[in-house]
TrEMBL record:
The chain crosses the membrane at residues 38-59, 71-90. The keyword Membrane applies. This is LytTR family transcriptional regulator. Keywords: Membrane, Transmembrane, Transmembrane helix. InterPro entries: LytTR_DNA-bd_dom. The lineage of its organism: Bacteria, Pseudomonadati, Bacteroidota, Cytophagia, Cytophagales. It holds the Pfam family LytTR. Residues 165-218 form the HTH LytTR-type domain. GO terms for molecular function: DNA binding.
Length: 244
């Protein structure tokens, strides 16, 4: 249960704070025969309560919540009130003239408590979220260097660098190369997906051009070898983005 864990942690912290100080030498201001004999213990309990309030309310909710101006404002106000109260109590109730050492202890305990809390948060967060193992990187897919197809029923691996342009004819395409042409059962859309994107660009509903084979480019035409192909009106903007 979370509340039991919270109470247990704070009881342990309070016990450590009480044991860490020498009550007789440092915190018994002027001994008495009444409740003032236990005033140092009460002071430590109140000090621990302030540290918990500062860490869990002011620091965690305001500072870590992003409202740092409000955090420093409330912190300054609380420290001022605590300083004034402690000075009045030490001087009027216990007759202490030099309150500076006790005020410095008040400030240092506040800072120390914050440091312990930040360390605790760091350790618990790190243990709850161990660093994820680095998965082996999957090599990026490389662009195809061959176009696999059937030419007259025979499997062929056509090097893409030899293809000048592709012309679509419904469910068939014509693959034009230097000195030869193949008719392949394949749609132009499928050919567009299988050809390297950084090398081939579709310029119309009927043609895909190998840019490395183009001799002349302008806003309306692409010349590939002796063939001049017209850039479709719908494809002009897309083609302009792809052409060098």
């Amino acid at each position: 249960m979370k509340w039991l864990s919270f109470v247990g942690r704070n009881l342990l912290g309070l016990s450590a704070l009480l044991l860490a100080h020498n009550f007789v030498d440092q915190y018994i201001l002027h001994g008495g025969t009444d409740w003032t004999d236990y005033a140092p213990y009460l002071f430590l309990v109140l000090m621990y309560g302030w540290i918990v309030f500062h860490n869990r309310v002011l620091f965690e909710r305001l500072f870590l919540g992003g409202n740092r101006v409000a955090y420093f404002g409330w912190l300054g106000l609380c420290m001022l009130v605590g300083t004034v109260n402690m000075t009045l109590i030490l001087r009027q109730l216990f007759g202490v003239d030099n309150v500076v050492p006790h005020l410095l202890r008040y400030y240092s305990d506040t800072v120390t408590g914050l440091g312990v809390y930040v360390t605790y948060r760091y350790l618990t967060t790190t243990s709850a979220n161990p660093p994820a193992s680095i998965a082996p990187q999957t090599p990026l897919p490389t662009e195809p260097t061959y176009l696999s197809c059937l030419v007259n029923g025979v499997p062929q691996q056509i090097p893409v660098v030899t293809i000048r342009y592709v012309e679509g004819l419904e469910n068939y395409i014509k693959i034009f190369m230097a000195g030869q042409m193949h008719v392949v059962r394949m749609t132009l859309k499928e050919a567009e997906l299988r050809l390297p994107k950084d090398q081939f660009v579709r310029i119309s509903k009927s043609h895909i051009v190998n840019l490395t084979q183009a001799q002349r480019l302008d806003a309306d035409h692409v010349q590939v070898g002796a063939q001049t192909l017209r850039i479709g009106r719908v494809f002009k903007r897309y083609t302009a983005e792809q052409l060098p």
